[in-house]
């Protein structure tokens, strides 16, 4: 894990695949965290191992199954996902000059996006800056 951190490698975790194939070995999240390895999250949507299309459910699974924090989960589907794709300069954070796909949620606190299952509090969205 230390070599991963030094190389700038992003670990991409797939909670839906973990669940769907009934995997029993949890990714070494504590070790990755301790070594400063960035952790991205993805749906890995595919018919063989992860028929998942809900990023909200992936957030819940990452927190529940992998014991990731709310902050780690939200960064995992934004900033760290962009880093995993090598696109941090263009996407992943709210900064002037970056492309903007933005979800506006009807929630009181970010933890609701990770905690609740089977709901979608989407109020509005911005797609390609519009």
What does this structure look like?
This protein is α+β, with helices and mostly antiparallel strands. The protein is 38% helix and 13% strand. It has 7 helices and 4 strands, in the order H-E-H-H-E-H-H-H-E-H-E. The strands form 2 sheets. The protein has a two-stranded parallel sheet. Strands 3-4 form a two-stranded antiparallel sheet. It is globular, with a radius of gyration of 15 Å. It starts with a helix and ends with a strand.
Helices and strands in order, then pairings?
Blueprint: H1 2-7, E1 10-13, H2 15-20, H3 29-35, E2 38-41, H4 55-66, H5 70-76, H6 79-84, E3 102-105, H7 111-115, E4 122-126
Parallel strand pairs: 1-2
Antiparallel strand pairs: 3-4
Search tags:
single chain, two-stranded parallel ribbon, alpha+beta, 130 residues, 13% strand
User: Mean pLDDT score, rounded?
Assistant: 94
- What's the shape? globular
Number of helices: 7
Number of strands: 4
Poorly predicted tracts of residues: none
Can you summarize the main beta sheet? 2 strands, parallel
Q: What structural category characterises the helix and strand content?
A: alpha+beta
Order of helices and strands: HEHHEHHHEHE
Give helix % range: 25-40%
Terminal residue distance: 40 Å
Q: Any idea what the radius of gyration is?
A: 15 Å
Q: In which order are the strands of the major sheet placed?
A: 1-2
- Strand residue percentage: 5-15%
């Amino acid at each position: 894990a230390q070599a991963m951190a030094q190389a700038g490698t992003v670990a991409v975790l797939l909670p839906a695949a973990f669940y769907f194939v009934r995997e029993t070995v949890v990714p070494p999240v504590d070790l990755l965290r301790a070594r400063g390895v960035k952790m991205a999250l993805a749906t890995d949507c595919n018919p063989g191992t992860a028929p998942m299309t809900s990023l909200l459910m992936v957030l819940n699974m990452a927190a529940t199954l992998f014991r990731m924090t709310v902050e780690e989960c939200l960064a995992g589907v934004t900033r760290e996902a962009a880093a995993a794709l090598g696109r941090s300069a263009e996407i992943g954070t709210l900064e002037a000059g970056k492309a903007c796909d933005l979800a506006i949620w009807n929630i009181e606190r970010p933890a609701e996006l990770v905690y609740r299952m089977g709901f979608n509090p989407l109020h509005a969205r911005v797609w390609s800056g519009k």
